[in-house]
Amino acid sequence: TFAGEPKWAKQVLTYRILNYTPDLHAAEVNAAIKKALSVWSHVTPLKFIRKDRGDADIMISFAARGHNDFIPFDGPGGSVAHAYAPGKDFGGDAHFDEDETWTKSTEGTNLFYVAAHEFGHSLGLFHSKDPNALMYPVYRKFDPSVFRLHQDDINGIQHLYGPSSNTHNDQRESTEIKDSAESKDPTLPNTCGPNITFDAVTTFRGEIMFFKDKHFWRKHPAVRTADFNLISSFWPRLPPGVDAAYEMPEKDETVIFKGNEFWVVRGDTILPGYPQKIYTLGFSKDVTKIDAAFYNGKEGKTHYFIADKFWSYDKRSQSMDRKPKLIRDAFPGINGKIDAVFQHENFFYFFCGRKQLEFDPNKKRVTRLLKTNFWFPC
Amino acid sequence: FPADTRQNKEEGMQLIQKYLENYYGFKKDGESFIWKSNSLMTQKIKEMQKFFGLEVTGKLDSGTLDLVQKRRCGFPDVAGFS
After folding, report:
1. Which helix (H) or strand (E) covers residue A348, if one does?
2. Which chain A positions have a beta carbon within 8 Å of B69's beta carbon?
3. Core-most of A244, A279, B25, B82, by most CB within 10 Å?
4. In terms of pLDDT, which residue wins out, B21 or A178?
5. How far apart are CA A298 and CA A83, in angstroms?
6. Looking at this predicted complex, what is its ipTM?
């Protein structure tokens, strides 16, 4: 431990990834950081919650050379990262040298392994003299698939925070950390793959949110890269594989549908009283799920798409259509079931399987046939 | 010494000095110091060799030089860092 044994007085700590290395997919960085923190939460009562905005106990960033603290990095090799003992401001923060080549393998510098070491500092551990301990200061190649926390590390961290509350983690055992669920996925969805389809798409506070299984991408139209998150990292109670989503910007609310239920969220908060059943919106009882939806602020209408038909809710008269209309009648060129739809500037974008159709509501026709991943830097 | 050996020696000395400054709180006293009489440097090398379980010679031997070139955590190995 450090002189004076600084440690966190609380057991639930927050962390925030401030920026990403271009060496890895954002999702791979997220997974490596999450797994590195789980190394310590497995053997202590500590829990880690990720934040995407505001302050956090452990602020994580990538930088090269001088980076606003008193310890500039030294280019490739040498010092690869550093972190600060528990405390306010810089306390707990972890900095990674962007001049390293960050990887998730034994090549280059393995991000998970270095991050697990640095978070040891963030929690109050000093360097170990034991060459097999994680807190040994010199970087060594290791098998990333099975990671073994050494007893010396466990002794140190449990001296500060006590053992894990779940009994099966026997302190004498070295703790093996299997790849966390996220990186166990046979394949994380790849937006640049030829077959990418989306479950739902919506605008979201000036960005566009693309939902797929248990993840979503956030993409600002003017920014090249997209941020990739677990749905549960934003809304822990929301199920994966949503059906539809739309935003009502003037209320700063986004409505998300799954099966015969829907939730209303504001930022990363689910508003109280949700989920509610979708028939409360005015659908006939035989409607059990919707495929897609979007809100047209100019008209004051929300359109809900189900198979080859759609329902419209008029905000002004506060009434839902008595019966659905055919999609192709109101949106010529859009035939059959759609996966997702959103409005961007003066156009509607319909996602049908691997196609995306840009629709001009003024000309009442499809103006462009686009790839599904048109919005991504592929 | 042939030029390249002397140069290697100087490079090695700069490496170890930088390493001890970064991770062992070594402070160079004055602008120039005479290697042999600099007991602080020798003491710091011994401290580092002891930490890493190397033979404690106080000299810049190959094992020590090899270690200072490895990637590592940027945090010092000696307490008292604030």
Report:
1. strand A347-352
2. 77
3. A244
4. B21
5. 50
6. 0.85
